[in-house]
From TrEMBL:
<dbReference type="GO" id="GO:0030313">
    <property type="term" value="C:cell envelope"/>
</dbReference>
<feature type="domain" description="Multidrug resistance protein MdtA-like beta-barrel">
    <location>
        <begin position="203"/>
        <end position="279"/>
    </location>
</feature>
<keyword id="KW-0175">Coiled coil</keyword>
<feature type="coiled-coil region">
    <location>
        <begin position="99"/>
        <end position="169"/>
    </location>
</feature>
<dbReference type="InterPro" id="IPR058626">
    <property type="entry name" value="MdtA-like_b-barrel"/>
</dbReference>
<comment type="similarity">
    <text>Belongs to the membrane fusion protein (MFP) (TC 8.A.1) family.</text>
</comment>
<feature type="domain" description="Multidrug resistance protein MdtA-like barrel-sandwich hybrid">
    <location>
        <begin position="58"/>
        <end position="197"/>
    </location>
</feature>
<feature type="signal peptide">
    <location>
        <begin position="1"/>
        <end position="19"/>
    </location>
</feature>
<dbReference type="GO" id="GO:0046677">
    <property type="term" value="P:response to antibiotic"/>
</dbReference>
<dbReference type="Pfam" id="PF25944">
    <property type="entry name" value="Beta-barrel_RND"/>
</dbReference>
<keyword id="KW-0732">Signal</keyword>
<dbReference type="InterPro" id="IPR058625">
    <property type="entry name" value="MdtA-like_BSH"/>
</dbReference>
<dbReference type="Pfam" id="PF25917">
    <property type="entry name" value="BSH_RND"/>
</dbReference>
<dbReference type="InterPro" id="IPR058637">
    <property type="entry name" value="YknX-like_C"/>
</dbReference>
<protein>
    <submittedName>
        <fullName>RND transporter</fullName>
    </submittedName>
</protein>
<dbReference type="InterPro" id="IPR006143">
    <property type="entry name" value="RND_pump_MFP"/>
</dbReference>
<dbReference type="GO" id="GO:0005886">
    <property type="term" value="C:plasma membrane"/>
</dbReference>
Length: 356
């Protein structure tokens, strides 16, 4: 009887131990429940702000192309001028005297040429009775007279050009700047008198980095990009005028990794050359956005956890622009199930259950 009781007691204890082991095993193999989002590419709108310097679309220096004393100024700083309008007059007296002297010399040279021409024509008629030396002398005199006339004509043209250049005119339409010289000053050829700015159209430069550039450059060149730009002034006013891409540089700046794009705006009188403003660039692109908390930042790079066949998998990613609580990511397959929470509890290859 005692042996039977002992056997029953041992059997009971063993059954109890086996039950506890089963419970522990069940607890250890419990599947983790995770929250996920489905990775999908959608057309997103990105707004970026760039501090920009406003430049005139057209700016030209007024340069003297001859020498002379400044005797008359016809426009002052701030005046609006038209292309071809007279701005300055230089003293042309010395050039006019030179021209008069050259005109006199040309008249004499033409007389000599006429005489040499008659002698040459006569020699051609009498060449049978003239020596070769005499014929050569007559022909040489005729050619020298021709050359002298041509030389004087060129000198007169040059002086006439200098005379015309004593009247300095506006090369473009625009607003004239401060002049560098007062009346009475000696102006040399090549000196800048002032500049003219045509600010009916203004430009700002957008430096687009390579990552964004690759996505839209072809469309930009062809004018097909879903891209718009506006200016925001220092007081917070955003102008309604949309800018147009006027030029794209032909090379990436190796120091900055960006390409210069000029955006042109029609000036409604609110913009000035040298003024700073914010260039608001709005562009649309097909992008994949994931919640910020789904992206794990590690020393060896960024990655996300995905669920593949019920198990945790790691997917390395690169990140782009942030939009509120989300960020553009590259490297995730369309339709992937990306885990958003509880990364510290996960390891690659671990089975998980998606909540819901």
């Amino acid at each position: 009887m005692k042996k039977s009781l002992i056997s029953l007691t041992l059997l009971s204890l063993l059954c109890g131990c086996n039950s506890d082991v089963g419970t522990v095993a069940e607890m250890g193999s419990a599947t983790v429940t995770v929250n996920t989002v489905i990775a999908q590419s959608k057309t997103q709108q990105f707004i970026e702000s760039h501090s920009s310097l406003i430049q005139p679309a057209e700016q030209v220096e007024v340069i003297s192309r001859t020498q002379g004393y400044l005797i008359k100024t016809h426009a002052k700083a701030g005046d609006s001028v038209k292309k071809g309008q007279l701005l300055y007059e230089l003293d042309a007296v010395d050039y006019e005297i030179s021209k008069a002297e050259l005109d006199s010399q040309l008249a004499i040279a033409n007389t000599h040429l006429q005489m040499a021409q008659r002698e040459y024509a006569r020699a051609q008629q009498l060449k049978e009775s003239l020596s070769l030396q005499e014929l050569d002398e007559v022909e040489t005199n005729f050619k020298l007279a021709q050359g002298q006339v041509a030389l004087l004509e060129r000198q007169i043209d040059r002086v006439q050009l200098d005379i015309s250049r004593t009247k300095i005119r506006a090369p473009i339409n625009g607003v004239i700047g401060e002049r560098s010289f007062d009346e009475g000053a000696l102006i040399n050829a090549g000196q800048v008198l002032n500049d003219i700015v045509n600010d009916e159209q203004v430009e700002v430069i957008l430096n687009l980095d390579e990552k964004k550039l690759l996505a839209i450059i072809d469309d930009l060149r062809q004018g097909n990009a879903d891209f718009s730009a506006r200016l925001q002034l220092i007081d917070g006013t955003t102008l309604s005028e949309e800018g147009q891409v006027s030029s794209i540089d032909n090379k990436v700046n190796p120091n900055t990794g960006s390409l210069a794009i000029k955006v042109q705006f029609t000036n409604q009188g609110q913009l000035y050359s040298g003024q700073y403003a914010q260039l608001l660039v709005v562009r649309s692109a097909d992008s994949m956005l994931l919640p910020q908390q789904a992206i794990i930042n590690a020393p060896d790079g960024n990655y996300v956890y995905t669920v593949v066949e019920g198990k945790v998998a790691r997917q390395d990613v690169t990140t782009g622009t942030a939009l509120k609580d989300k960020r553009v990511v590259f490297g995730v397959a369309e339709g992937a199930q990306v885990i958003t929470h509880g990364h510290s509890r996960l390891s690659v290859g671990e089975p998980v259950q998606i909540e819901g």
